[in-house]
Amino acid sequence: MRRFRKYRKPNYSRTTKLILIAVLVLLTAVLGYIIMLEVRQIKLERAGQLSAQQTAQPVQTQQEGETDADAAAQEAEQAQAAQQRAEEARAARIEEGKKYSFYQKLAHGCDVNMLVMGDSVISGEGASGDDTTWIAQLKAYVEDKYLSGGDYTGTMSVTNLAAEGSTVVKGYFTAMELDDGVDYDLAVLCFARDDADKDYGVYFEALVRAIHYRYPDCAVISVLEATEGGHTNKMMSMETVCKYYDIPVADTFAAHYALGEKDFFTAFSDSIHPNDKGQTIYFETIRDIINENVENDTGKMADTAALSGEAARFDRLTYVSAADFTRDGTEFSLSQEFTGMLILDCTYPIVKENARLVADDILYNLPKDAPFDGPRGNYLLIASKEMVITDKMGITFTDDTLAAGFSGVYLCSSAPEEASAS
Question: pLDDT (tens digit, 9 = 90+) per residue, 266-295?
Fold first, then answer.
């Protein structure tokens, strides 16, 4: 068996021990220094990374902001360009549309303006709401069928002047004096309920000619009111004028009559004004006329001599205000050369006994006819249909109150070199 020797502790000298201790302290110091350097390096690296992150974040935020701003500017640019293209397209269509009739404008997708004139029957009264009137239905239909679906969306603007108590003669004066800056493409006319039989055809023709004079490219559709009960004297005189001028007639009575005797009045709200069912009948009747004329490429209304010489007297209209007269008490005088029809305009229902009229020292007796409503809310009386003034005219009222209610006169005359067909 092997035997181990007993360990003996070295017996170093004092000097050797000091040297060993010194070496050990030095190694410990070197190791501590190395550790310190490593820790410092780690701290520096960590500080550098944090600084880099802090520096990079504002740059990134700035870049993102610049990107958003660029995108917004680009979107605004594109929107502005799109709007400019739309405006240019609209302007081009308006310019192009000048050579077209109302029906041709629809065929080419051009904007159109519609004027509605008549009594309360055609005004939309009786409908349950604005969106159920024949006007709203027609506007929606026209814009959907003819003015949308392409690179341009057009509109049909509507001016509705129909109102309770409106007569065809009042419609004539309104058309001649209308000054709203709109160039109308279609006029829908519907009168009769508040009109007298006498001279209805004359005044209706005067209205048609007034519209053609004011708006030469305007098409006209005349409506035969269902409440007229069919082809009355007024309606037959209207149809005669329409046939002469090649104006289509929207016969709403026929559409109501087709409902049968039992259901005829189911399309009325009060036996006069069309309810929603009746509004749809008016819409569909006018719609069918429009579609037919678009399909037939119907052109503009031609310049035509008057059917009636009486109607031709209304071709030109001038208004002279009372302020343009020289007043002396109850007498108004005016120096004027004129040949044609003279109509008094007063704030009250003037009658024969209220005044006397003198022109070139010739007395003109006022007629016994009843006055009619004028466009200014006044009353009109035809003083003479064949007035001739070469020097001066005077109007004398019977008292100051009547004189104070004098507003002026209308002077109506035929167009130069106007001839009638009658």
Answer: 998 988 999 999 999 999 999 999 999 999
- Tokens linked to 118: 């008549």
Measured between alpha carbons, how far is 60 from 78 in angstroms, rounded to an integer? Answer: 27
At 193 the three-state DSSP class reads: coil
Strand, coil or helix: 367: coil
Write out pLDDT tens, residues 347-386: 999 999 999 999 999 999 899 988 998 888 899 999 999 9
Place of tokens 């007796």: 365
Strand segments (E) across 225-275 = 249-251
Place of tokens 């000097």: 15
Which phi and psi angles does 13 have, rounded to 5°? -80, 165
State the Cα torsion 307-311-313-317 to the nearest 10°: -130
C-alpha 125: how far from its chain's center? 20
Q: Report the alpha-carbon distance of residue 209 to residue 192 in Å, rounded.
A: 18
Question: 156: which 2 tokens?
Answer: 């049909």
